Amino acid sequence: GLNFGLKLPTGAFDVENAAGATAERTLQPGSGTTDALLGAYYQRQLPQRDLSWFVQGIAQLPLDTREEYKPGEKVSLDLGLRYDATQNLGLLLQANLLWRGRDKGAAAETDDSGGYSLWLSPGIAYALGKDWQAYAFLQQALYQYVNGVQLVAERGVVLGVGGRF
């Protein structure tokens, strides 16, 4: 299957701290840019009952610049297994690889942006109907490399709802 969409320029990109200083653009809730999302996925049932594997990749490509800032491109690749514990409940284990390019523009901190990471993510998925599911993952970083000085997390939680039509 294919994935596509747009990330709209929502979220502030000019938030100030208590002293009135505007935070760096990479620390802002939003980037101020519109990004294209392009991806693909493949899923295959394994011979063993209730077990399948999947691979998916998605690229986030900024389409414009906002106030002399353009975030770096992002590419993620996920490879995983799914075990259908019940008709509605799936147990998942996946490896996630994320690559992020350097930010660009006069407002960017080019030397302190971009990098890549590898995560191991166990999770669950619950069918909300024929074409919709809710999911949750706990992510644990296995390897991280960033350019310069950046904030990184060792663990993360991902929650979401997905559908197909």
Please, how many helices?
A: 0
Largest beta sheet, briefly? 8 strands, antiparallel
- Overall pLDDT score: 94
Low-confidence stretches: none
Tell me the helix content: under 10%
Topology as H/E string?
A: EEEEEEEE
**Spatial order of strands in the largest sheet:** 1-2-3-4-5-6-7-8
Shape verdict: elongated
Assembly annotation: single chain
- Cα end-to-end separation: 11 Å
Estimated share of beta-strand residues: over 45%
Number of strand elements: 8
Derived from helix and strand composition plus strand pairing, the structural class reads mainly beta
Radius of gyration: 18 Å
Show the helix and strand layout.
Layout: E1 2-7, E2 35-45, E3 51-62, E4 74-84, E5 89-100, E6 115-127, E7 132-146, E8 155-163
Antiparallel strand pairs: 1-2, 2-3, 3-4, 4-5, 5-6, 6-7, 7-8
